[in-house]
Amino acid sequence: MKIIGFVYHNGSTEMVLKGDSCLLNGRKPFFMPDWSEAIGVTPCMILRVSRLGKEIAPKFADRYYDAVAPGEDFVALDILREAEKEGKPWTKALAFDYSLSIGEWIDKGERLKVKGESLIISPEEAIAEASKVMTIRQGDLIYIQAKQDPKPVQKEDVLRVEIEGEEKLYCKIK
Questions:
Q1: pTM of the complete model
Q2: Is 71:44 a contact under the CB 8 Å cutoff?
């Protein structure tokens, strides 16, 4: 399984990869890593890929995912700034264990709005862009951040997403 992300940073969209150890689900808490002084979070929408595809045209992309989930993408802001300054990869800042909190899956017919924010690209554009670079397979996840900078989080903060009065994501920061 691949986790392909589209992140918003400094006014541009970047595609990133995360390993499966980055997933945090089941209402489990997020533990602040001791190697970072500043953790931020950006809301996102997560797509569950439902079939194999390569070089998919955007007009056919909706056939390649079957469900969406709300998510929160964690980033080590201090490590990211340092990596950018030194021209190093962002991997440590973005792809650490449990850095992507995922909520409950919702049928894709119920289009999910991410906390009232617009996404940096549409789900169809994300699938088309990801499939240009690599084959997407059933079970892969594609997440798309909201078009906003990460907001800092502190211990004891609680992240929640409710849809029509029903809690779909809950994550306590510890």
A1: 0.93
A2: yes
Where b means 16+ CB within 10 Å and e means fewer, 111-136 reads: ebebeebebbbebbbbbbbbbeeeeb
For residue 8, how many other CB atoms are within 10 A of its CB?
22
The CATH T-level fold of domain 3-27+35-153 is Fumarylacetoacetate hydrolase; domain 2 (3.90.850)
Q: Enumerate the H helices of 39-122 as residue ranges.
A: 77-86, 91-94
| pLDDT, tens digit, 9 for 90 and up, residues 152-170 | 999 999 999 988 889 999 9
Phi-psi region of 62 (alpha: psi -120 to 50; beta: other; left: phi over 0): alpha
- What distance in Å separates the CA atoms of residue 129 and residue 123, rounded to the nearest whole number? 10
Burial class (CB in 10 A: 0-12, 13-18, 19+), 1: exposed
